[in-house]
Amino acid sequence: MSVTKAADVLAQLDLSQAETAEPFYLKVGPVGLKILSPEPLRSALTEYFAEALNDDREAELTVKLLPGQTLDTPPNWVEWAREPGKAGRKDAIFDLDDARLIHKVRTGVTFLQSQTEVLAFGPLTDNISTVINFINTQVLNICQRAGWQICHAAAVTNGTRTLAIAGLSGGGKSTSILRMMDLGGTRFVTNDRLLVRGGTPVQALGIPKHPRINPGTILGNPRLHGMLSATRLGALRDMEPEALWTLEEKYDLIIADIYGPDRVQYAAPLTDFWVLNWSRDTDAPTTVTEVTLADRPDLLGAIMKSPGPFYQFPDGRFLGNGIAPIPADYLAALQGVRVKEVSGGIGFDALTEQGRALFDG
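Request: output the structure for the sequence above.
Response:
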């Protein structure tokens, strides 16, 4: 069957699998989503999104989930170019006349993104994290169409001051932001994607995605030790520091389980932005120095994040392959935010004390 339009894809799928399911609703800042998913995937998602569940049933977009379904014949996928520094195949796309198909190479999950239909199909139940990311991508898309900029950053807030932390992947931003969560009065905003919009004050918006952390983050924070067995913790303590730092072994940290209830706040005024530019190869003290972001394109590059293959402009066009973010848009959005560079050696204790001083005013 030739596939040129979204209708050609829909004709190969059984939408009743989603449309007969009991819906649930999410609210993230100004964005409302309606999710249609059969069990047992529905229960797993409602448990994960507990802090974002909403009863007002207001939704500007409906996401349909179709576990186990596939297309009769896969299209001729085109590899999506990854950002600099990223290796391996991750996403592939196939553009239709009125939609885009996106395929996750590693998991086999496929998505249809259009102005009227947003759905996922394939081995969804075996790849719940991929489904969570897809739902969160819709929050990002809606906000970006409204003028928000997407940042590769984590953030916490005390309601008055909000600190965002960016850095290269594996640079310690998740560990840093969780150390800030140990401070009294702070609440979790986001772990890896932060939306910002210029104004007075500048606005920040997180997404309902719990931190996915590596064992080194767990080992370095006694509060998190219960996430691993005593045997695993012992094995990690015996590892060389370099091997521990680079170990990729992801665990979901559910905020309410570790920090208690009412410790999540997705929307907040953004006041401060720190960029981790420190190094494991020096014994120099950790320093936090205010900078002018317009003079530091290297730091701005750590903040900016491409919308990715899912992004569809208001007029229906999709983001082109390999198109980079526009620096001027970020500089405008972050106007008025105090930006600092974290340099020297890696020192989470020193950084936490800087955070304590910030939130204490």
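The chain has a mean pLDDT of 94.
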